[in-house]
Amino acid sequence: MTDLYAVVGNPISHSKSPRIHALFAANTRQDMEYTAIQAPVNAFADTVADFFDAGGQGLNVTVPFKQEAWALCQWRSERAQRSGAVNTLWQDEQGRLCGDNTDGAGLVRDLTLNHPISLTGKNLLLLGAGGAARGVLQPLLAQAPATLVIANRTLQKAQDLVDLFPETTGVRACHFRDLSEPFDLIINATSASLAGDLPPLPNGIITPQTFAYDMMYGPHQTPFNQWAQGCGAHQCIDGLGMLVEQAAEAFFLWRKIRPDTASVLALLRDFR
Predict the structure, then answer these.
(1) Of 16, 66, 122, 157, which one is the catalytic site residue?
(2) What's the pLDDT at 197?
(3) FRET label pair with 12: which of 65, 71, 169, 175, CA 20 to 30 Å apart?
């Protein structure tokens, strides 16, 4: 019997997840079907319950439901617990709704395997203090960078993220305007690129050795990566690889098989 999976969000018609997981299933010879579900904004919990009651095996969750998914879970991984958001759901043998957040793992795998960039002992800058930034913090810190600075328009929001990791040294918050020193890697976790904008950043944080990474992606280079390239960054990377790698992490959680991502990523880049 074909196992059923889906991604749920609102809106959802733009999602690349059905195509990605269909390619994963074909490459790994898994008997599964993956669809997209648009849930009413006030009926996410009912949509999840209906899906699993009908025999569904796993759900991916996207905007605007990741925090609500976190609240619904009866068990969460440590990375999901700290992130305050869940993007992958399944039920365990006891029927509990379980949740994980694969965004950070997807980012780290894209950086360290696909490019590859070592994060250990490096000075990292994370731009933004919203859900996207919070979701990747623990996996980034697990790579043991020398420092990780979280910069945001509202300093307190950045400090709130720092406070989630009291046991970790080398993590600090600052306002965009207070940035001055150069970084080895700058990750844009703001939504500015979606509006064709970028945070107010000084040119001095970029050197010819700096990698620039925008979690956003599109058919053209993002405004952040355009800016970084103009400042002389060593390499500018978009978030399409993160999208594929976080999907592969969810696939592994469900199927216990890690799909090849390089071929899928190449196909997506060819056809976008």
Answers:
(1) 66
(2) 82
(3) 71
